[in-house]
Design a protein that fits this description.
Blueprint: E1 13-17, H1 46-59, E2 63-67, H2 77-85, E3 92-97, H3 102-112, E4 116-120, H4 126-133, H5 138-150, E5 157-162, H6 171-180, E6 184-189, H7 199-202, H8 206-216, E7 219-221, E8 232-236, E9 242-246, E10 259-262, E11 267-269, E12 278-279, H9 281-286, H10 289-301, H11 321-324
Parallel strand pairs: 1-2, 1-10, 2-3, 3-4, 4-5, 5-6, 6-9
Antiparallel strand pairs: 7-8, 8-9, 10-11, 11-12
The protein binds S-adenosylmethionine (SAM) and iron/sulfur cluster.
Length: about 325
């Protein structure tokens, strides 16, 4: 089975947020005081998340990314991941994490059947890292990354949200990391989420990121895989690792979008920037898997062709990425 939207895009990738809670407070993701937490009964149970995943896979989803908030802070996450990994028809189970708990949990994640990790790492300097994450300890993340490599994960994807005047002086440092390690470093254009009027000052366009690397190194185009979605990949000539840029703001990101999202509260969204989304709780309450599958198909059919955030005159409604699962 395939999920094809009205623009002919094949939707085969589900991003599943399992919690809105987090052990960090990244400046680009949530306000300093955090966001109002969902009540325990508003967060979907693992049972419901599993039912959504099973029906999504039956309808045509091939890859699931578990995200959050910080997925590793939710109790019971390893057992849940093992159950997702066992879904018949699922080709890829991956996880996005800030890496703080990775040192302790890497082996468990591997044993549960997680195939690859995306680790958010926005600075290689302890002070900048602490400033962006509002108190995070860089060394803990670096130790976690090493441990995950040691237990046998394939080369990690490292996500870097680039912000002008904050960490854009480290673009080359991150690029050079791929000369030493086989990581896939992906630069993400900063997206407005917390209602900041000045977001355009912070966003460094993907073309500029690439140009800064190309001025220093010879770069070669690299491929993308069937389910990799909108990242544009390339590498420094001879580097074991690769580079990618996610031009969420300036690029043709939407044309290649293959994603569906479900928030921790059970709201399905065809687009990250879709305001309200569709609450899956009522259909979950019926207990009917067929209705759930039909609802997923309807959401895919209604997926917008593109987001309008960058359009002149369009104001973004503030939202916390930790709620939606970035
Ligand atoms: N806590 C995990 C982490 O940080 O990797 C998973 C959830 S986090 C919301 C998922 C991704 O969203 C991270 O890679 C983060 O960098 C990205 N993200 C959050 N806010 C963003 C923003 N305003 N612009 C671009 N990316 C953002
Ligand atoms: Fe937490 Fe990830 Fe958001 Fe940072 S980006 S506050 S680690 S959910």
């Amino acid at each position: 089975m395939s999920l094809i939207d009205t623009y002919g895009r094949r939707i085969n990738y589900l991003r599943l947020s399992v919690t809105d809670r987090c052990n960090l407070r990244c400046s680009y993701c949530m306000p300093e005081e955090g966001v109002e937490k969902l009540g325990h009964c508003d967060v979907l149970s693992y049972e419901d998340l599993l039912r959504i995943s099973a029906e999504a896979v039956a309808a045509g989803i091939e890859k699931i990314r578990v995200t959050g908030g910080e997925p590793l802070v939710r109790k019971g996450i390893l057992d849940f991941l093992a159950r997702i990994a066992a879904l018949p028809g699922l080709k890829e189970l991956v996880l996005t994490t800030n890496g703080l708990l990775l040192k302790e949990m890497a082996q468990g994640l591997k044993d549960a059947g997680v195939q690859r990790l995306n680790i958010s790492l926005d600075s290689l300097k302890p002070e900048t890292f602490a400033a962006i994450t509002r108190g995070g300890e860089l060394q803990r993340v670096l130790d976690g990354i090493d441990e995950a490599e040691r237990v046998g994960f394939p080369p990690h994807k490292i996500n870097v949200v680039v912000m002008r005047g904050v960490n854009d002086d480290e673009i080359l440092d991150f690029a050079e990391l791929t000369l030493k390690r086989p990581y896939a470093v992906r630069f993400i254009e900063y997206m407005p989420t917390c209602g900041d009027a000045d977001w355009r000052d912070l966003t460094v366009p993907g073309a500029e990121i690439r140009e800064r690397i190309a001025q220093r190194y010879t770069i070669e185009e690299g491929g993308s895989t069937e389910r990799s979605g909108p990242a544009r990949n390339f590498r420094i000539k001879g580097a074991p690792g690769s580079l990618g840029i996610i031009t969420a703001m300036t690029g043709h990101f939407c044309e290649g979008c293959n994603r569906l999202r479900v928030t921790a509260a059970g709201v399905a969204k065809g687009c990250l920037f879709s305001g309200s989304g569709v609450d899956l709780k009522p259909v979950l309450a019926t207990g009917d898997p067929e209705l759930l599958r039909q609802e997923i198909q309807r959401i895919v059919a209604a997926k917008p062709g593109r987001h309008e955030v960058t359009d002149e005159g369009v104001e973004t409604k503030p939202f916390a990425m930790s709620r939606v699962g970035g």
